[in-house]
Structure to design on (341 residues):
C-alpha cells in the first residue's frame, strides 16, 4: 500500500497517481508535478489515500509543489499561445502538402516541448515539418498521431442524445464496445444509429450491458416452453428493461400473445442430457458429462458451453439427492418388513 493523490491534466483526462511527499493537497487544488513529458500543471481529483501497489505504475513520482497564483497565470498563458501555435502549424502543413489533419496543440508547463496531435489515414513523413516548427518556436517539437475516438475527445461535440459527448465530459478511458452489445440490447444494427460522431460504436452501449446480461440469465429464452397463470405457452419476446416475458398460449385452433411479469413465468425443465459412463477401473464417484453431451445440450437450449455445463451439474446434484432419498426410503421399508416378520 502507498499514499497517493490522483491528478488530472485536462477535462475528462486520464487519472494519474503521484506521491504527495510532504504536501497534503486536497481535491480541487492545483499542483506542479514531473511527468514523462516534463513539468506539468494539473488538478488534484482525489486527495491523499491508500492504494494497492498493483494499481501503481512505477516509478511513482513526487509532487514538486502546490501551484501558486503565478503558476496558474503561466498555465493560462500557455493555453492562449496554443491557438497561435496551431494556426502556424496548419500553415506549415499546407506548405508541405501533407495529408494530415491537425486536431490540437499542447504546451508543457515549462515550455520545454510543444505537442501537436493529428489524424491521418496513412503514415506521414513530417520530418521537414518538424524542422520548420523547431526553427519557428525554438523548442522541442513532437507530432503525435491519434485515432478518431481521441479526436472526438479533444474536439468535443454533441451526440445523438443532444448532450455533449461522454468522452469529452467524464470518460477517462475508452472501454471496448462490440456489435454484440447492440444485439444484446435489441438495438437496430444500422451503423448510423449506433455510431457516435467519431464513426465508431457509441460508448454508451457499454453502460447497461452488465444489466442486460444479468437480467437475461434470469429470464427464459425465446422459443422455450414456460408455465404461466393462463397455462403453458412458448416465449416469443423478452423486455429486459421491464422484465416482462411475452408468451404465445394456444387457444383451440388459434393462439394469443400476452405479457407476464418475470415472477409469474416458470420454466419447463427439458429432458436432461446423457451423462458420461463411469470408469469401472476407477473408483471415482464423479459423474462428469462428456463434451459431446454438453455441446448438444447447449445447442438445443441456446446456451454457451459453460452455461450448459453448469445446468448439467445442477441436474446431477438433484439426481444424487433424489437417489439418496430413495435409498433412505428403501432402507426404512426393509427395516419395517423385518420387524413385522
Amino acid at each position: 500500500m502507498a499514499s497517493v493523490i490522483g491528478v488530472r491534466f485536462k477535462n475528462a483526462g486520464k487519472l494519474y497517481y503521484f506521491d504527495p511527499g510532504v504536501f497534503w493537497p486536497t481535491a480541487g487544488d492545483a499542483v506542479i508535478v514531473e511527468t514523462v513529458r516534463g513539468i506539468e500543471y494539473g488538478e488534484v481529483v482525489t486527495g491523499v489515500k491508500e492504494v494497492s501497489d498493483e494499481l501503481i505504475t512505477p516509478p511513482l513520482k513526487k509532487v514538486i509543489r502546490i501551484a501558486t497564483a503565478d503558476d496558474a497565470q503561466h498555465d493560462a498563458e500557455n493555453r492562449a499561445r496554443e491557438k497561435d501555435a496551431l494556426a502556424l502549424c496548419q500553415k506549415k502543413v499546407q506548405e508541405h502538402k501533407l495529408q494530415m489533419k491537425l486536431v490540437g496543440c499542447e504546451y508543457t508547463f515549462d515550455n520545454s516541448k510543444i505537442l501537436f496531435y493529428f489524424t491521418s489515414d496513412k503514415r506521414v513523413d513530417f520530418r521537414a515539418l518538424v524542422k520548420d516548427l523547431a526553427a519557428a518556436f525554438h523548442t522541442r517539437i513532437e507530432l503525435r498521431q491519434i485515432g478518431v475516438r481521441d479526436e472526438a475527445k479533444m474536439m468535443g461535440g454533441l451526440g445523438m442524445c443532444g448532450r455533449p459527448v461522454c468522452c469529452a465530459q467524464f470518460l477517462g478511458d475508452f472501454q471496448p464496445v462490440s456489435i454484440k452489445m447492440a444485439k444484446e440490447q435489441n438495438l437496430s444494427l444500422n451503423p448510423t444509429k449506433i455510431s457516435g460522431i467519431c464513426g465508431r460504436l457509441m460508448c454508451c452501449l457499454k453502460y447497461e450491458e452488465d444489466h442486460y446480461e444479468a437480467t437475461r440469465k434470469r429470464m427464459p429464452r425465446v422459443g422455450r416452453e414456460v408455465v404461466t397463470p393462463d397455462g403453458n405457452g412458448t416465449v416469443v419476446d423478452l423486455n429486459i428493461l421491464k422484465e416482462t416475458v411475452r408468451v404465445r398460449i394456444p387457444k383451440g385452433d388459434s393462439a394469443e400473445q400476452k405479457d407476464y411479469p418475470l415472477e409469474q413465468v416458470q420454466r419447463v425443465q427439458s429432458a436432461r442430457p446423457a451423462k458420461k459412463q463411469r470408469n469401472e477401473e476407477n473408483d471415482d464417484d464423479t459423474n462428469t458429462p462428456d463434451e459431446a453431451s454438453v455441446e448438444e445440450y447447449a445447442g438445443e437450449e441456446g446456451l454457451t458451453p459453460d452455461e450448459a455445463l453448469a445446468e448439467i451439474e445442477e441436474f446431477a446434484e438433484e439426481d444424487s439427492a433424489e437417489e439418496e432419498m430413495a435409498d433412505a426410503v428403501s432402507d426404512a421399508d426393509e427395516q419395517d418388513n423385518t420387524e413385522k416378520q
Notes: The chain has nine helices and 13 strands. The longest strand covers residues 38-51. The chain has a mean pLDDT of 81. The CA atoms of residues 332 and 338 lie 10 Å apart.
